[in-house]
Amino acid sequence: MSQPVRCRWGAVTITGNYRENNEDNLHVDPEGRYFLVADGMGGQSAGEKASELAIELVADRLSNCLTDLANDNDVVAAIDEAVAHANAEIMALGELDPKYRNMGTTITFVINPGGRLFVGGVGDSRVYRLRDGALDQLTKDHSLTQALLDAGTITAEEAANHRYKNVLYRYLGTKEGGQGTDAQVVAAAASDRFLLCSDGVTDGIDDDEITRLLQSESDPQKAAETLVDAALNGGSRDNITCIVVDVESA
Question: Where are the beta strands (DSSP E) in the chain?
Fold first, then answer.
């Protein structure tokens, strides 16, 4: 497999104004081979534990296997297996320890094994791509609201503030969480900018504001900090986490 796409990145996670602890987690591989964001749920320390486990276990599996994969199907299979393994461990701990019962987490990722990127996730944490001034959401939320939108039952305007917006039908910590990550291959172009974020970002700012802010800062770390500050000031009531990844050469 060819060398990873050359990237720069910045990352921020904060508790925010409304939560007592930060149930979000993120991880950036030092070599830029993978980027992960997870948003835990379950109250008290349970959500924090779920997202921590997801990040730790998925990162460990990816670190050990990415360099040995020969083709796209192998990469997708490795990603799905890593996430399914984390899902099983989260479910097992939830069964063993009462304080972790019913805990769960989302996970979203950009994987960079060489030559192209793989994007996907489980839950409603998102990956966006900014290319030539246009913002595209590359992941689909596994929420009841998104399912209603897909079915044509509600409009996009109704979906924005729908009561089931944060109710997930797939996340890690349930049997559905191990049923694949919808990973897709994304051709990378120099000057592409990717955003991985928990819903704490999109709770405070809309896609137009995300586009504007991603274009306003050339440094990815400053861009990440600007997005988190804007979401906080925009009234986000959740933990807020994002990673901004810039493609330097592809």
Answer: 6-14, 24-28, 34-41, 104-105, 107-111, 117-122, 126-131, 134-137, 184-186, 193-197, 240-249
